[in-house]
Specification:
This is PDR-type ABC transporter. Its main location: membrane. GO terms for molecular function: ABC-type transporter activity; ATP binding; ATP hydrolysis activity. Pfam families: ABC2_membrane, ABC2_membrane_7, ABC_tran. This protein has about 1350 residues and is α/β, with parallel strands linked by helices. The protein has 4 domains: about 280 residues, Rossmann fold (3-Layer(aba) Sandwich); about 270 residues; about 300 residues, Rossmann fold, CATH 3.40.50; about 270 residues, no CATH class. Helices cover about 50% and strands about 10% of the residues. It contains 46 helices and 19 strands. The strands form 4 sheets. Strands 6-7-8-3-9-10 form a 6-stranded mixed β-sheet, sandwiched between helices. A 6-stranded mixed β-sheet has the order 15-16-17-13-18-19, with helices on both faces. A 4-stranded antiparallel β-sheet has the order 2-1-4-5, covered by helices on one side. Helix 15 crosses helix 18 and helix 39 packs across helix 41. It is globular and about 110 Å long.
Length: about 1350
């Protein structure tokens, strides 16, 4: 950290020395300096300022003194009947749930004064987040027990004071800009007495304070729509919390994902905020040396135990007294984390460091007893459960602000708002055309009943599912704001509906009603039309509020959609269309009174049929007894509805809306989503750290590849939603750089500098879409020759920033073995591939966690550092010559990040070319950097050359690195614009522009160090590809490196220094590179492996098995409850055909099964497809083979229930036809899900569009619409529901006879229908069932082939070769 001229850090701190790897004699920079010396800062209630951090215009806050005494936390890790995720463990434990207590925190003590900034540091699994969450009272679990106290101003519990918590993940509305996000937050959080001008000023100063000026009018963005960078989103999250003006501010890893300069600016801001009287407590991973100086207090944890807790000025003397002297030029934060960590690279080191840790813990226990005396008067204290931080905005103000915000979010979500309006128009037109000018004969009456059901059920279902999906996306925002006492449940629900009243809630039912009513040919009566619209409107609100209740119950889409589907199934069965309501079995008949669709359908029918008379073929009109069945009263009676059934059901329907509203409000108020203590991972520590077995080889021994970029740039063409072409955006400006083998090649730059985009472009990972087109230009060459796309993909491996491609339920060894079997060439035997996997396992130091599960948020598994190692291990299985890594240390603590960088250094020393982006490099790593590319914001290069020449280059430009600063941090500071103060902004912007221009002049002028590249570039011919035999030779020649047969490292050879000129003998020739082209695993190789992997992954996740089977079985059980047994009176005809129509509901089941599973599988496949591992054919074939047995099993159970319980004919033919009909529809639903989830990554939009297709297919099937137009009859031939229903109906009905009970007969005493054949003829189902079974089989195959074709097209690179 730089100080004022002439003053060193040793003078300021007395004992802190910071890093400089090269130990260069270099001067000072002003960008990361504190103008006030640290020694002059007094920790009292007086206000004081840090230069560079503007004073926020927030009212002074209540000073809060935090005292922690003996805080210990333990958790019961025993399996529980209440946690389905532990059922496998419960079964293996013989159903024993005896407590297994694990201590997470051991007796933490601290005194944190107001006006201070406290850091909680430690390695992975040390308990940092556990301590922070416990202090903030964000952990709620019955398995958790706590001892000790956390006292805030003499009262137990943080809720007695105003506080705020910044989570590690950013929960922000993606369609709002940064400024809008903060404005709305200010309106909700600041006291109501604050004027609009003051709120605006505070927002602007927060924007400046957090360096958000340049992105203030940029939308937050998400995975679908690019917006702010990760670092900018983090700063917005902090800004939102600052607006509530908290006395105590908790932050969980606030600098994760930020570059070093941004991280420093952020902590400097927190320091300034603390100095205004706040008590700020944060966990932090990798604090750079300057950040250390900003902390007032430290709590250092190791494996849950404190080894120091007190002022930062006393930390290093404490460790020095214990015999641990801070070496010169070492970052103190990294030093204390390393001192408190257990090094398990060897048993000897592990024993030594464990002994050291125990001595540190014991020494601190003794010290803390004297340093932290027991608090007095504890017995009189009472835990205050109610927060002082009451809601800032009143009811009406909340409603106004939230309505305005929701309105803005709604009209900026074209896929949401447009989808809703389009859905209403399309459904209105399609269904209107399907029932165009519906007849008034007996078939027309049946069709009218079907049409009115579609208005209730299918249209309602689409609204229900789409709103359920949207709410699962939006609800986290409410949960965060509710937990911060900014927003209450009732204003939130009201505002959501008020905002969408104009955009959706009124237009959707109105447009649907208007189009459908007149197309269908209903009575041209204004009163009837507005009654029809009123019913549609109230039904719309009932569906919307039911969706709210579903999401309040379960916050995630799979769970909420399951509840919504169960609710919809009850609606469709109990409403009275498929089963005559008076014939529903007694034990479930009461359900009709608690389903809103019964009232909706009844109101629609009352509006249509009451007082109406239809076209009776007999003369005499209504007075003729033979025309009884054509009268409205008879139709209403046959449906089971009472007389005068219009106004009353509308009132009941409105009552349902109010009921769901109240239920949702109560649920939102009382069902809080709070953090629960996770079950422990198999490993809390990085067991792999330092256990790598690398084989360093001299560059002379290895045929290496140098990667050169000549005038390489990247532009982006985008089109707006309306198709208008937007101005071209430059992501990366022309770059000239060489990345050499044998060293670490580093790309650094602030957020928004295009680092990741450059890597993706080099790896050919950028994909164009309809609205987005990337335009790379310039030349990328390998050893001077331009490679083909297939060579690039074969020679380069790419490690993404996240570890999403790892399947959570596989162990580390299984992951590597499956990857080896899929990725390594076919000429290698299984044993050789497994041996290679074991070599890489040893090389990457993963031996100790080899049999632990990878894990994720739900499945316990290995640590973050180990996951990153596994991701790297997977990529180096094929011994790639070039390894590209995007932020390999992001999110890891200093110790783990260091071990990962040691791994990468070892891989580079083996002769590979490693190119990586990095945010916050440790100072002791800089000496390992080979070449450095510095990118300023906007993608302009500011330096591209050897790392050891970088500081001299800056020195020549007049910018000298301070003697004790991290050179990497210094370089980032040099190319980052400081947006926190006007004077600094202008100065830093000039500096950055000067550096960019100077480098542009230097590189274009022909830098002498670049000349060798140009001379040699023209000598090598184009790279061409050869066959796999040459690849085999490459392997046989020993290009795959590793350890010997005994697992011992080969003799260690020091790597050569970086070359200044080519030695052609050492370089891979184009022919050799062409020989490295590898092919995807063949179908015969890939499918068995993918199946085996998927079976293991599914078997270890019971929820996947449940998702695959329970929807079909659950629906079958509901059918059995409502339809069993089918009778043979006249009214039962409706029930028989209703049952056959309801089989079409399995179309939705297949789609929902796909939505629950396929998107995750697709994402893993996309990642592996990018690596060229296996083909689309192999993926879809293995997916299908695994899917089919579950479907067959559940459909067999369906057949049993239908034949034995419901009462279908008990014949083998009937059984197998019903099973196959169910299977065919479910499978086609799955195929449709694959199609839409491949075309659209937006799952909610895909669900909405799919729901529309499925609804139309259900309406066309023939039961709801008897006389459909010719166009729909033609389209119906594409629907599996047509063939399934026409397969089942003849076998079910053709031998049945029917009779009429008294009151069901016609005037002449005859029964309208007496045989099943008459029913089949009425509905036009009298087809050859064998032909329909064959057609369903064809449909099943064609649908899956279409899904395959779409997936293949989606993964094809147009204008290039397939990835």
């Amino acid at each position: 950290m730089a100080l004022t001229a002439g003053e060193s850090k040793e003078e300021a701190l007395g004992h802190i020395a910071a890093i400089d790897v090269e130990k260069a004699e270099i001067g000072s920079t002003t960008d990361t300096s504190l103008d006030v010396p640290i020694s002059h800062i007094k920790l009292d209630r007086n206000r004081f300022s840090v230069a560079g951090a503007a004073n926020l215009s927030l009212d002074d806050v209540e000073a809060v003194d935090v005292q922690i005494r003996g805080l210990a936390i333990s958790v019961d890790t025993a399996p529980s009947w209440l946690d389905p995720g532990t059922y496998p463990e419960l079964f293996s434990a013989g159903f024993k749930t005896a407590p297994r207590i694990k201590t997470l925190l051991h007796s933490v003590d601290a005194d944190l004064k107001p006006g201070t900034l406290t850091a909680i540091i430690g390695g992975s699994g040390s308990g940092k987040t556990t301590l922070l969450n416990n202090l903030a009272e964000r952990v709620v679990s019955s398995r958790l027990s706590q001892q000790g106290l956390a006292v805030f101003n003499g009262q137990i519990g943080v809720n007695s004071v105003r506080h705020a918590y910044v989570m590690q993940q950013d929960i922000l509305l993606p369609t709002l800009t940064v400024r809008e996000t903060l404005r709305y937050s200010a309106d909700l959080r600041l006291p109501s007495s604050t004027s609009a001008e003051d709120r605006e000023r505070i927002v602007e100063e927060v924007i400046r304070e957090l360096g958000l000026k340049e992105c203030a009018n940029t939308r937050i963005g998400n995975s679908q729509h690019r917006g702010c960078s990760g670092g900018e989103k983090r700063r917005v999250s902090i800004g939102v919390q600052l607006l509530s003006n908290p006395s105590v501010l908790f932050l969980d890893e606030p600098t994760t994902g930020l570059d070093a300069t941004s991280a420093f600016q952020l902590i400097r801001t927190l320091k300034a905020l603390a100095q205004k009287g706040r008590n700020i407590i944060t966990t932090i991973h990798q604090p750079r040396s300057e950040i250390w100086d900003l902390f007032d207090n430290l709590i250092i944890l190791s494996k849950g135990s404190p080894v120091f807790s007190g002022p930062v000025s006393e930390c290093l003397p404490w460790f020095k007294d214990l015999g641990h002297q801070l070496p010169p030029f070492v970052n103190p934060a990294e030093f204390v984390i390393d001192i408190a960590a257990v090094d398990n690279r060897t048993p000897e080191l592990e024993a030594e460091t464990s002994t050291r840790l125990e001595s540190l813990k014991a020494a601190w226990r003794i010290e803390s007893e004297s340093r932290f005396p027991a608090l007095q008067g504890i017995a009189e204290m009472r835990r205050n459960k109610h927060s002082k931080a009451t809601t800032h905005a009143g009811f009406l103000r909340q409603v106004r602000i939230l309505t305005d915000r929701t309105l803005k979010v709604t009209y900026r979500d074209p896929l949401g708002m447009t989808a809703s309006i389009l859905e209403a128009i399309i459904m209105g037109l399609v269904i209107g055309y399907l029932f165009y000018n519906v007849g008034r004969d007996q078939a027309g009456i049946r069709s009218r009943e079907g049409l009115l059901y579609i208005c209730v059920g299918l249209q309602g279902y689409l609204i229900l599912m789409f709103e359920t999906y949207r709410l699962t996306i939006d609800m986290p925002t409410f949960d965060r704001e509710s937990s911060e006492h900014c927003v209450d449940a009732v204003p939130y629900i009201l505002s959501r509906r008020l905002a969408r009243l104009v955009t959706e809630d009124f237009p959707v039912p109105f447009l649907f009603s208007l189009i459908l009513y007149f197309m269908a040919g209903f009575d041209h009566d204004a009163a009837k039309f507005f009654t029809f619209f009123s019913i549609s409107l109230v039904n719309h609100f009932a569906c919307i509020m039911c969706a709210f209740t579903c999401v309040v119950t379960v916050r995630h889409f799979p769970g909420a959609s399951l509840i919504a589907n169960f609710a919809f199934t009850l609606q469709s069965i109990a409403c009275g269309i498929f089963i005559q309501v008076d014939t529903i079995p007694v034990y479930v008949r009461w359900l009709k009174w608690v389903t809103w669709s019964f009232y909706t359908f009844g109101a629609y029918c009352g509006n249509e049929f009451q007082g109406s008379f239809y076209d009776c073929p007999e003369p005499g009109g209504p007075s003729n007894p033979a025309c009884l069945q054509y009268t409205g009263d008879y139709i209403m009676s046959s449906l089971g509805f009472p007389r005068d059934w219009i106004a009353r059901p509308i009132v009941c329907l409105a009552a349902f809306v109010i009921f769901f509203f109240i239920l949702s409000a109560i649920g939102l108020h009382y069902i809080k989503v709070e953090m629960t203590i996770a079950r422990p991972r198999v490993s809390d520590t990085d067991l792999s750290a330092g256990k790598e077995k690398m084989t360093a080889r001299s560059i002379a021994e290895v045929r290496t590849i140098d990667v050169e970029l000549e005038n390489f740039s990247l532009d982006l063409d985008k089109r707006a939603a309306n198709g208008k072409k937007l101005p071209r955006k430059t992501i990366v400006k022309p770059i000239n750089v060489t990345f050499q083998a044998g060293t670490l090649n580093i790309i650094m730059g602030p957020s928004g500098s295009g680092k990741t985009s450059l890597l993706n472009s080099m790896a050919l990972r950028l994909r164009n879409s309809i609205s987005t087109h990337y335009r790379p230009s310039g030349k990328m060459s390998f050893n001077g020759a331009v490679p083909s796309s297939s060579v690039v993909r074969s020679v380069c491996s790419y490690v993404c920033q996240d570890d999403d491609a790892l399947l959570p339920s596989l162990t580390v060894r299984e992951t590597l073995r499956f990857s080896a079997a899929l990725r390594l060439p076919s000429f290698m035997s299984k044993e050789e591939k497994y041996r290679r996997a074991e070599e890489i396992l040893m090389k990457m130091g993963l031996k100790d966690c080899a049999d632990n599960l990878i894990g994720n948020d739900l499945v316990k598994g290995i640590s973050g550092g180990e996951k990153r190692r596994v991701s790297i291990a997977v990529q180096i299985l094929t011994d790639p010559r070039i390894l590209l890594l995007d932020e390999p240390t992001s999110g890891l603590d200093a110790f783990t990040a260091n071990s990962i960088m040691e791994v990468l250094q070892g891989l580079a020393q083996e002769g590979r070319t490693l190119i990586l982006t990095i945010h916050q490099p440790r100072s002791d790593l800089f000496k390992h950097f080979g070449n450095v590319l510095l990118l300023a914001r906007g993608g302009a290069p500011a330096y591209a050359g050897r790392a050891k020449d970088m500081l001299n280059y800056f020195n020549r430009q007049g910018y000298q690195c301070p003697q004790h600063s991290n050179p990497a941090d210094f370089a980032l500071d040099m190319i980052t614009v400081d947006l926190q103060r006007d004077d600094r902004e202008a100065e830093s912007r000039d500096r950055v522009e000067k550096l960019i221009e100077e480098w542009k002049r230097c590189s274009s002028g022909g830098d002498k160090e670049q000349q060798w590249k140009k001379e040699e570039g023209s000598r090598l011919p184009e790279i061409t590809e050869t066959d796999e035999l040459d690849e085999k030779k490459a392997f046989d020649d020993g290009d795959i490196t590793g350890v010997n047969a005994d697992g011992e490292p080969l003799p260690n050879i020091q790597p050569a220094t970086s070359r200044k000129s080519f030695n052609k003998a050492n370089l891979s020739t184009p022919a050799e590179l062409g020989a490295l082209v590898h092919k995807r695993a063949s179908l015969a190789t890939a499918v068995p492996l993918l199946l085996h992997r998927a079976v293991i992954n599914t078997r270890r996740q019971p929820q996947l098995i449940m998702a695959r089977t329970m929807q079909v079985v659950g629906l079958a059980i509901i059918f059995a409850l409502f339809f069993a047994p089918l009778h043979h009176d006249y009214y039962a005809v409706q029930n028989w055909m209703g049952f056959i129509q309801e089989v079409g509901a399995f179309y939705f089941v297949g789609m929902l099964q796909n939505v629950a599973i396929y998107p995750t599988e697709r994402d893993v496949f996309y990642r592996e497809d990018d690596d060229g591992v296996y083909s689309v054919d192999a993926f879809l074939l293995s997916y299908t083979i695994l899917e089919v047995p579950f479907e067959i099993l559940s459909c067999l159970l369906f057949g049993i229930l239908m034949c034995l319980a419901v009462g279908l004919p008990r014949t083998a033919t009937m059984y197998f036809v019903s099973v196959f009909g169910c299977f065919g529809i479910v499978s086609c639903g799955e195929s449709l899900g694959i199609m839409f989830n491949t075309i659209v990554n937006h799952t909610g939009f895909a669900v909405n569009i799919m729901g529309m297709f499925l609804s139309i297919a259900t309406a066309m099937a023939g039961v709801l619409s008897i006389n459909a137009p010719k166009a729909f009859k033609a389209l119906n031939y594409l629907s599996p529901i047509r063939y399934a229903s026409r397969s089942i109906a003849p076998y079910a009905l053709r031998d049945e006879t029917f009779y009429c009970k008294p009151g069901q007969q016609l005037a002449n005493g005859t029964c309208p229908i007496t045989t099943g054949k008459q029913v089949l003829q009425l509905y036009d189902f009298d087809d050859n069932p064998v032909v329909n079974v064959a057609a369903l089989a064809g449909c099943l195959v064609v649908y899956r082939l279409l899904a395959w074709l779409l997936l293949r097209l989606a993964r094809t690179r147009w204008g290039g070769s397939k990835k």
